[in-house]
Design brief:
Blueprint lengths: L29 E5 H5 L10 E5 L2 H12 L3 H12 L8 H105 L1
Antiparallel strand pairs: 1-2
């Protein structure tokens, strides 16, 4: 885009000539000429005016407007598409190769799915068998524990019966002790009588 710079007016002593200064923003092939260079008279005065000269200004403005307008893009694309040669037609051999590769991949996928299905069935059967074995083991363990508990209760009952039966044995043991004491008394008495005679 070309932007016109603001104009500076200055009164010169030679006739008050008015010059217009135009500036371009980021345009190639731009030449900068100063008034001092044109007159071959260097000067450092503040009244020095810089002039920017742009070649083919009108053409550049049209080009920039054409590039910036969005309506130019579809037309250019259409022209490019129209200018595309027919060399982009797909090769039949490539299509055949792609079809063959697709069939091979499909067959391999079928085999893979079949093997996967068989493996899943096998794992399911093993899982069921393991569950059944675990259930049988748990059932057997429960039965064994129940039998042990019943036997323990039976043994405790027998022990209680034995304790009740041992009550008479204690009484009998006390009687035996009493008899032994009486026998000892008789023996000592007979010994004394024998010694006196």
């Amino acid at each position: 885009m070309v932007h016109l710079a603001k104009e500076k007016s200055s009164q010169m002593a030679s006739g008050g000539e008015r010059r217009a200064a135009s500036r371009t923003h980021s345009m190639p092939n731009t030449r900068l000429r100063t008034e001092n260079e044109m007159n071959n008279n260097p000067s450092t005065s503040r009244d020095t005016q810089h002039t920017f000269v742009v070649e083919d200004l009108e053409r550049r403005i049209r080009d920039s407007a054409r590039i910036g307008s969005p309506s130019s893009t579809p037309a250019s694309e259409g022209s490019r598409r129209g200018s595309v040669p027919g060399s982009l037609t797909p090769d039949p051999l490539v299509l055949v190769s792609l079809e063959s590769s697709a069939r091979t991949i499909s067959a391999n996928l079928d085999v893979l799915l079949r093997d996967l299905r068989g493996s899943l069935h096998g794992m399911s059967d093993l899982t069921v068998e393991a569950s059944e074995c675990y259930s049988d083991a748990i059932s057997s363990t429960c039965d064994s524990v129940d039998a042990v508990i019943k036997n323990t209760y039976a043994m405790l009952a027998k022990v209680e019966e034995l304790n009740e039966a041992m009550v008479g044995v204690k009484r009998l043991a006390q009687q035996v002790k009493d008899i032994k004491r009486v026998v000892d008394l008789f023996e000592s008495h007979f010994t004394m009588i024998k010694n006196n005679s």
